[in-house]
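User: Hi! I'm working on a homework problem where we have to compare a predicted structure to a textbook description. Could you give me the structure for the chain below?
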Amino acid sequence: MCQDALKNKDLSLTLKDLHLTDSGVYTCTVYNKDGHMLLQKSVTLSVRDFQVEMMTVTQGERSVLIPFKVTDDLPQDVKVEWKLTYPEETMIHLYESSKKQHLSQDPVYTGHTEMDEDPLKTKDLSLTLKDLHLTDSGVYTCTVYNKDGHMLLQKSVTLSVKETPDTGVQKIDTSDAQETPNTAVQQGDTDQETTQRDADVEHGDTPGTGWGNTVTGWVSQKGGQAVAQSGRNGTGV
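Assistant: Happy to help. Predicted structure tokens:
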């Protein structure tokens, strides 16, 4: 308090190093020397934990966990509200500890949200948002109230849902493509084929028959040269 409260007419109280447990009703009463009350004033103090986070997810993801874990013990008779506060205010999930009930307050979010079954026991007030769409982007705020409706805790998370990135890979339809055989033979290979046939005749072999090395009617590309393929019989391989 002020050093000379009566002279300064300032009866204010300064409370230092605040904790969540400092929430409550503070009353100042002034008495005369006979003990009769002269003045009285009450102030309700609510100490809250306000946090802001940002999260980015991709459209089409099955779910996202919007985290909110507390360290202090909470009263048993509390109400936990999750709201979409931007771009428009919508109640999306409500937990009432006195009734042990989880309620979705807007039909759009029915089956779309989920919290821990007993969040006061686990101290986990996180919200799971399912089946994400671009329209789920916004500011989500969780507020905890005591049984008298006084705010105890609050946290806001900005959620940004992005479109699925384009990989830039195009699928080419090859169902109608046909293989074109390579039948081009260089001049050198044609000369070798003629020489081989001449050699077969000279040795008594009929060109294209017997066990001579005959050239089939197709080639394969190897090392930039057309290589003639040979078979072990006159009908080719």
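For your comparison, note the following. The chain has three domains: 11-45, 50-162, 187-231. The first strand starts at residue 24 and ends at 31. Good luck with the assignment!
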